[in-house]
Every structure is written in structure tokens, then in C-alpha cells.
């Protein structure tokens, strides 16, 4: 049983990350375009730049893997897309160069995270007495 929930920040697999961050980058480029096209400061430039900042912060802060007593919760930017994987459903966990791959009974899920965090999460998930009640 965990006394303190463990949290690890992640980004989704490479194709999904590229797509999400490209849209976020478009908001940044649009705000810069407005700033450079209109020589005086406009409120529209600030609004679009704030939309970019909010989107970037949400994408970084809301994506986390939380180890709970009954399973691994993979939280996403929108809570309706969050996944909960029971410890019993996890068949294999592999460390890759830039993240982890979870193999469950139903799917294979790849996430990108810092190498240090990936190794720590791998150790925790492969140590049954720390994970299971």
C-alpha cells in the first residue's frame, strides 16, 4: 500500500505529442504574427498569447501517471480520456530510451518521460510487495 501517491509527469507517444504540440505551436506563431503585423500593441495579441500559455501549461501539468493502491492512473489533459490500469492487468513494463511501454491484456501503451523517472517507475511496478496491498 502506498502511504503517499507517487506522481510522474509524461507525454504521450511520439505521433500524438507531435500533433498536440504542433497545434500549441500554431497558437504561439499566430500570436507572434499578430504582434509583428500590427505595429501597436493590441489586446488580440495578448489574448492569443495567453491561449498559447494556457494550452502549454495544461499539456505539461495535467499529464501524469499516478500510482494508486489499486492500479496505475494515466491522467490526460481532458479527464474523459484518462485511463486506469489495474496492477493485475499489467503483463509487462519495458523501459525504452525515452520512456516506458505498458503491455496489458488489452493494449500496448507507450509514454515518453524522463529517463530517471522511467527507471524509477519501472522499479516500482516490478516490485510486487510495494505495489500490491
Description:
The protein starts with 5 loop residues before the first strand and ends with a helix. The chain is of the alpha+beta class and 133 residues long. The protein contains 4 helices and 8 strands. The chain has helices at residues 14-37, 43-61, 115-125, 128-131; strands spanning 6-9, 11-12, 64-67, 71-75, 83-86, 90-96, 99-104, 108-112. The longest helix has 24 residues, at 14-37. It has a 4-stranded antiparallel beta sheet with strand order 1-3-4-5, with no helix packed on it. The chain has a 4-stranded antiparallel beta sheet with strand order 2-8-7-6.
The radius of gyration is 19 Å
Mean pLDDT: 88
Number of continuous helical runs = 4
* Global shape: elongated
Measured as a percent range, the helix fraction is: 40-55%
DSSP strand count: 8
- The largest beta-sheet arranges its strands as 1-3-4-5
N-to-C CA distance: 5 Å
Low-confidence parts: none
* Order of H and E elements: EEHHEEEEEEHH
Q: How would you classify the helix and strand content by structural class?
A: alpha+beta
Strand % is 25-35%
- Major sheet description: 4 strands, antiparallel
